[in-house]
Amino acid sequence: MIDGLQLVHPDRPLRLSAQGQTHARVDPDRATLVLGNLVSNAVRYGLPGTPVEIALRELEMSVYNQGPRIPSQVLPRLFDAFQRGVPDGSRHGDGLGLGLYIVQQIVEAHGGGVSVRSEEGSGTTFAVRSPKK
User: Fold this and answer.
1) 49 half-sphere exposure, CB direction, 13 A CA radius
2) How far apart are CA 109 and CA 47, in angstroms?
3) Domains and their CATH numbers in the chain
4) Residue 79's closest CA among 100, 49, 110?
5) Which of 21, 71, 118, 133 is the most exposed place for a label (fewest CB within 10 A)?
6) DSSP letter, residue 39
7) What is the C-alpha to C-alpha distance for residues 64 and 53, in angstroms, rounded to an integer?
């Protein structure tokens, strides 16, 4: 899947790393949708030309990009339906604001959780945790 996303975004290096036991029982179509949404957002909102890093570690998958932090007033509603990352529309790319809502719904329906950490100068990381099986 990462190879396919790299074809769509040839100007952005997509780096995948894996550590530990990374096999999990997931619906492959839903997992593809989750990863695709997170990587597409990382490309859209990250600094042009910088890599997007996808890391698999045990029961967690994270997607990191370098770029401006997500404003603190946006964070509480970031996973709500029809919400965009920046309310003034200054970011490039069109969308309905459903990507992160869909990610959260899929992950929670499988008993997992999703979180975001975004700090100025440190970039943004979305983390998806799978339940222990």
Assistant:
1) 0
2) 32
3) 2-129 (3.30.565.10)
4) 100
5) 133
6) H
7) 5
Cα 131 from Cα 9, distance rounded (Å): 31
pTM of the model: 0.86
Per-residue pLDDT tens over the stretch 43-62: 999 999 999 999 999 889 99
CA distances from 68 to 30, 118, 130 (A): 28, 8, 28
pLDDT digits (tens, 9 = 90+) for 72-128: 899 999 999 987 766 544 545 567 789 999 999 999 998 999 999 999 889 999 999
Q: Reduced to 3 states, what is the DSSP secondary structure of residue 60?
A: strand
Residues 4 and 108: beta-carbon distance below 8 Å: no
